[in-house]
Amino acid sequence: MNDYVLSGLLLCYGPLALTIIGFVVFAAITDAGVTRTYLRRLDLRPESEQPELPEPLVKVRTVARTPSGMRVTLIPGEGGGSTQVMAEGTPAPVAPEKPAPKAVAAGDDLTVIEGIGPKMAAALNAAGLNTYDKVASSTEDALRGAIEAAGMRLSPTLSTWPAQARLAAAGQWDELKRFQAELGRKPGAS
């Protein structure tokens, strides 16, 4: 009867035991490779003797994925300091409020363009896009770059800014209001 009990146990629990053993062996093999890779990069010297780190490559706030697929946010350090990495779902650190970029003198009031508020206008001014003519002759990529350089989110009406700026540069204010009304928003609101 002992043979029957042993056969039953092996039949029921044998596949489970093989699966668990296989998982443990696989984890040990793959973890050893990962540990070796990271330990190879580890500098064992005291912090005072380690060379100075290069300037961080991240210049603006960026969302990225790690090799394991986890989404992280890379936040550049102040004044060339180290880059912070935050996993998705962690609260953002409270950063001191940055002063708005100084407006360039002798520019046009870009806030009459739908989607450009005072902060967005300041970002465009800082990039040298301070007149209706300059915005009208800019590409979407140039406008997008100016806004991203200021660390701001893009406006959904960005693609219409050159057309709106052309109307404003020509002094066609009624046509501009009609165009803005077609965008589905109240004319003149930003």
Task: Please name the defining characteristics of this protein.
190 residues; mainly alpha; three-stranded antiparallel beta sheet; 6 helices; 3 strands; elongated
Question: What's the structural blueprint in terms of helices and strands?
Answer:
Blueprint: H1 2-41, E1 62-65, E2 71-75, E3 84-87, H2 118-126, H3 132-136, H4 140-149, H5 161-169, H6 173-182
Antiparallel strand pairs: 1-2, 2-3
Helix pairs in contact: 2-4
* Count of discrete alpha- or pi-helical segments spanning 4 or more residues: 6
Count of separate structural domains: 3
Q: Strand sequence of the main sheet, in spatial order?
A: 1-2-3
Number of strands: 3
Structure classification: mainly alpha
- Secondary structure: helix percent: 40-55%
The rounded distance between the terminal residues' Cα atoms is: 86 Å
Which outline best applies?
elongated
